[in-house]
Amino acid sequence: MAQQKLEQPSKFKAGAELKARVVEAASRLFSEEGYENVSVRHIAELAGCSQMAMYRHFPDKASLITHVCVELYVNQTTRVNQKLGHIASPMARLVEAGRQSIEMAVKNPHHYRLAFLTPMPDADSRKIRTEVAKPAIEFFRQNLREILPKQTPQELLEEKLRQCFASLHGAIVLLITYPHNYGVTRQSAIRDFEAMLHRITSC
Questions:
Q1: Chain segment 61-99, per-residue pLDDT in tens
Q2: Residue 36: which CATH number?
Q3: Using CB atoms within 10 A of its CB, is residue 44 exposed (0-12), middle (13-18) or buried (19+)?
Q4: Tell me, what CATH number does 124's domain have?
Q5: Which of 27, 59, 91 lies at the terminal end of a domain, its last residue?
Q6: Distance between CA 10 and CA 76 in Å, rounded?
Q7: Do residues 159 and 194 both lie within one domain?
Q8: Domain boundary at 39, 59, 79, which?
Q9: Residue 16, CA distances (Å) to 4, 5, 28 in order
Q10: How far apart are CA 167 and CA 94, in angstroms?
Q11: Whole-prediction pTM value?
């Protein structure tokens, strides 16, 4: 019995490491080559495992891309929340959230493309991604509500929210896709996002 108990963590660790390699390989290939152009065989080769071994964790490609996107959303949200706990000002919280998002995209551009720019393959996957994104959207909505006048209509608040995300994601796309065309740097993207925040909340 004692020997069996010692073996279980080792097997679990090996399985977890393989799953992590599969997720990393899939996220890179999906973002670089597109979901439709990536085969299960290609993912398994990059992960250094057989297709059968991969199927033990993910029965098909759709389940894999859904898992990857959910994991990326959750990991980013966790990192951002850790940085925001001590910040009292809603404007400062939004600026820091934007900065963290930009930093993450610069360090992991293929992850960002997959999580935010890759179309989901089916309705169930799209629904899952929508649900996972809700806390982040609500975070921005609540902080904008604190900044804007109390009498601000909900329709105007939602307009400001869309402008906020358009500014943030637009800056990130330019930064990780066309940095030389527009002279965008990490620092300028952060400054541009902060400036846009002040503009959309001052009127």
A1: 878 888 887 777 777 777 777 777 788 899 999 999 999
A2: 1.10.10.60
A3: buried
A4: 1.10.357.10
A5: 59
A6: 28
A7: yes
A8: 59
A9: 19, 17, 18
A10: 12
A11: 0.76
